[in-house]
Design brief:
Layout (H helix, E strand, L loop, with lengths): L21 H10 L5 H22 L8 E3 L6 H8 L19 H9 L9 E3 L6 E3 L2 E2 L10 H12 L4 E6 L1 H7 L1 E2 L13 H18 L3 E5 L6 H4 L7 H11 L5 E5 L13 H9 L3 E5 L18 E7 L9 H17 L3 E6 L27 H17 L5 H16 L6 H8 L11 H12 L16 H12 L4 H22 L16 H6 L1 E4 L6 E4 L2 E3 L3 E7 L6 H9 L6 E5 L1 H6 L9 H21 L4 E5 L14 H16 L7 E6 L8 H6 L4 E4 L7 H9 L4 E4 L12 H14 L18 H25 L1
Parallel strand pairs: 1-5, 4-6, 5-7, 7-8, 8-9, 9-10, 10-11, 16-17, 17-18, 18-19, 19-20
Antiparallel strand pairs: 2-3, 12-15, 13-14
Helix pairs in contact: 1-2, 9-10, 11-12, 16-17, 17-19, 21-22, 25-26
Bound molecules: methionine (MET) and zinc ion (ZN).
Protein name: 5-methyltetrahydropteroyltriglutamate--homocysteine S-methyltransferase
GO molecular function: 5-methyltetrahydropteroyltriglutamate-homocysteine S-methyltransferase activity
Function: Catalyzes the transfer of a methyl group from 5-methyltetrahydrofolate to homocysteine resulting in methionine formation.
């Protein structure tokens, strides 16, 4: 079969949530039973049509398949599950007699129902997007169902736009899946690959029959360690794509490889070459997170298109078009030498960035011209393709504008702040270390006088409707600063009184003043900006609005101290102040591309260090620095992990090492699979670490014991993600399991995570049970000593 040439400019995908979160509104109205399925469908179609019209206006071809057909009601991996009719056994009743699952059924998979938990949600590679994990067992049905893909293609075709249906590829689908509960212990979903590939052959045939000229299969898992091993010559990817390419009836095939370097990192381009040789019409490479394919591996590209993902889709900075064009020109020479074609694209789907800088109303004046959100990135792709094909002069204006903006950014006063740089340059190793843990322990025991098995919470208390509406009213200017402050103080006083009444040992202020544990810090540090409409889908109908780190970071004034010291003044109990750690602040923001992340992390760390000094001065002797994102930034390839863990741990230590011995530093990490980073967690050198543990029934305590973890540890004794109250007996049982492997003198009793998403009724009861179970455990312990 002779190969098709891919359009010169395209994007791998576009934000699905809608410029004004139209999809969120449509979905939530439907789930609340305010609208029927037809209404939801119509709203989704209108949103897609508007998006496609916008993309066409920006310059993507309406009929050459350069428009991505990547819409998903909830999640692209769920859509692959639907296309494969791979309904997990525990949801089997939702499938029709022909095995397919409809929209209503798919929403049950996504959201659960009275009797079933939804599919597990997990982070999509190293992003903040969460996908729904397929559950595959020995006999999970696998049967092609191209109906939704065909219907969508046909609907847009009838409207004059030719989309390129997009689907997670077969290898990635199975690598992203987990073994269904009840499958044999050594069952690996990948053993179902042949069946999945056969289903894809059928799906391709159905799309070809509907007239789709191109289809896009995303294979991002081939950039992870495990997937990469399958993407070298002679391995699985080669045979899978030989089969798919040999399908007699199929559209032209684009295979995308975003999020890193696919296959052997020492041989960038090798995977693209082998896919082309297998018969794939167009292969993509991520030139932002992945390495530039090298000439030696491009020889196999004859007749194929290489789609160069040169526009960053994970961050919001304006592209340096001049250097990009140079890179593209060099690459094209090599690709042409091999008999191939070069096209321009994005590094991944643009789903990770907001829609449009033009919708921003509150950004500081200097910022908009430095930025590119999805729409601006589409224009960048088009400009680069034009420059590549019509010559640099054809895009001289665009290049000059980008150059000027980049120059302004580099020279802007806040970009590099001498005082911040000097402070960083003068750091010595001593700034990263406290005295030894035992000395600290003695000082803290004297200062704090805590009981055995101290009880505490992770920081936030329920964010009630009242708290959220007061914040909204304050933002909107309908209540003034004084009224808002008065409201928050009352709320804090209530939270402190409740904790006293419940008999908790270490109290917190409850975080009522914080909209979000990262955004609140970004708002109070110099160097960050807030968007007004920069929403990015997090999962399903949920979106977050990451802050933008644009300059050197410092802390102009103490900001958590007033709230925390006010709360502490209301009680005689030991009091714990709450901060968010440097890695988490960066992980949940858009970060700089003009400085290594490690430099930004140390700047944030110093800002936090200042806050800690002020908290200490205000008499706060326990301070928690949350790092729930430490693990999520872990690089996808193991060869990069040591370096990352080195600087990330250092930044935490820099933030906390100014504390005196008697100040007890806590940290919190809300996940339990941390076997691979246990060394790093130990190296944080926190006096007390709280972790998630209830769902895995304290499994982690054994790992900790085997490791020899010697400092304070609070494995969560109740799962705050579920709206149910754990009984005293349940909590007691988990405490007992923990006591089975850990020393009673190091054990803390706390929930898994913060309580801000919970209601007061359940929180009160749950914490009462936690305290009662702890009191009972203490008396057993004192009897046995
Ligand atoms: C995602 S971790 C949350 C920690 C924070 N202190 C809270 O309690 O909400
Ligand atoms: Zn947490």
């Amino acid at each position: 079969m002779s190969k098709q040439t891919f359009p010169a400019a395209s994007i791998l995908g576009y934000p699905r949530i809608g410029p004004n979160r139209e999809l969120k509104k449509a979905l939530e109205a439907h789930w609340a039973k305010q609208t029927d399925e037809a209404t939801l469908h119509a709203a989704a179609l209108e949103l897609q049509r508007n998006n496609l019209a916008k993309l066409t206006t920006l310059g993507l071809g309406a009929t050459d398949a350069s428009l991505p057909g990547d819409f998903a009601y909830y999640d692209q991996v769920l859509d692959a599950t639907i296309a494969l009719s791979a309904v997990p056994t525990r949801f089997a009743d939702l499938a029709a007699t022909d095995g397919t699952i409809n929209t209503a059924g798919a929403f049950v998979l996504a959201r659960g129902d009275e009797s079933r938990a939804p599919l597990e949600m997990t982070k999509w590679f190293d992003t903040n997007y969460h996908y729904l994990v397929p559950e595959i067992g020995e006999s999970t049905p696998i049967k092609a169902n191209a109906a939704a893909l065909v219907e969508s293609f046909t609907a847009h075709q009838a409207n004059g736009t030719t989309i390129r249906p997009t689907l997670v590829g077969p290898i990635s689908y199975l690598l992203l899946a987990k073994a269904e509960d009840g499958a044999a212990a050594d069952f690996d979903p990948l053993v179902r690959l042949d069946e999945v590939v056969n289903a894809y052959v059928e799906i391709l045939a159905a799309l070809a029959a509907a007239g789709a000229p191109w289809v896009q299969l995303d294979e991002p898992a081939l950039v992870t360690d495990r997937g990469a091993a399958l993407a070298v010559p002679g391995a699985l990817a080669e045979s899978v794509y030989t089969t798919l390419a040999a399908a007699t009836k199929r559209p032209a095939l684009l295979v995308t490889l975003g999020y890193g370097t696919a296959g052997n990192v020492e041989r960038p381009g090798e995977t693209q070459g082998l896919l082309a040789r297998a018969g794939v019409d167009a292969v993509h490479a991520d030139l932002i997170r992945g390495a530039l394919p090298t000439a030696n591996f491009l020889g196999d590209l004859a007749g194929s298109t290489l789609v160069a993902g040169i526009v960053d889709s994970r961050n919001i900075w304006r592209n340096n078009l001049t250097t990009s064009l140079q890179t593209l020109q060099g690459l094209r020479a090599e690709v042409q030498q091999a008999g191939g074609t070069l096209a321009v694209g994005t590094a991944t789907s643009l789903q990770h960035v907001p829609h449009d800088v033009a919708l921003e109303t509150k950004l500081p004046a200097h910022l908009p011209e430095w930025l590119a959100f999805a729409n601006q990135k589409v224009s960048e792709v088009i400009t680069l393709a034009k420059g590549l094909n019509d010559g640099q002069e054809a895009v001289a204006t665009e290049l000059a504008e980008a150059d000027a903006a980049i120059k302004n950014r580099a020279e802007f006063a806040g970009t590099t702040v001498p005082a911040v740089r000097t402070r960083l340059a003068n750091l010595t190793t001593a700034d990263f270390s406290r005295s030894d843990a035992t000395t600290r322990k003695v000082a803290q025991e004297q200062a704090l006088d805590l009981p055995l098995l101290p009880t505490t919470t992770i920081g936030s208390f329920p964010q009630t409707v009242e708290v959220r509406s007061a914040r909204a009213a304050h933002r909107a200017g309908t209540i003034n600063d004084a009224a808002y402050e008065g409201f928050l103080k009352e709320e804090i006083a209530r939270v402190v009184a409740l904790q006293e009444e419940l008999g908790l040992d270490v109290l917190v202020h409850g975080e009522a003043e914080r909209n979000d544990m990262v955004q609140y810090f970004a708002e109070n540090f110099d160097g960050f900006a807030e968007t007004s409409n920069g929403w990015v889908q997090s999962y399903g109908s949920r979106a977050t609005r990451p802050s933008i780190l644009w300059g050197d970071v410092s802390r102009p004034a103490p900001f958590t101290v007033p709230w925390i010291s006010y709360a502490a003044s209301l009680t005689n109990k030991p009091f714990k102040g709450m901060l968010t750690g440097p890695v988490t602040i960066l992980a949940w923001s858009f970060i700089r591309d003009d400085e290594p992340l490690s430099v930004s992390a140390n700047q944030v760390a110093l800002a936090l260090r200042d806050e800690i000094a002020d908290l200490e001065a205000a008499g706060i002797s326990i301070i928690q620095v949350d790092e729930p994102a430490l693990r999520e930034l872990l690089p996808l390839r193991s060869k990069d992990q040591t370096k990352y863990l080195g600087w990330s741990v250092d930044s935490f230590r820099l933030s906390t090492a100014g504390a005196v011995d008697s100040t007890q530093i806590h940290t919190h990490l809300c996940y339990s699979e941390f076997g691979e980073i246990i060394n790093a967690i130990d190296a944080l050198d926190a006096d007390v670490t709280s972790i998630e543990a209830a769902r895995s029934r304290m499994e982690v305590t054994e790992d900790l014991t085997n490791f020899g973890f010697s400092r304070g540890i609070g494995p969560g004794v109740y799962d705050i993600h579920a709206p149910r109250v754990p009984s005293e007996a349940e909590v007691a049982e988990l405490i007992n399991i923990a006591l089975g492997s850990l020393d009673a003198r190091q054990l803390w009793i706390n929930p898994d995570c913060g309580l801000k998403t919970r209601g007061y009724l359940e929180t009160r009861e749950s914490l009462a049970n936690l305290v009662a179970a702890t009191v009972a455990a203490r008396s057993t312990l004192s009897l046995s000593v």
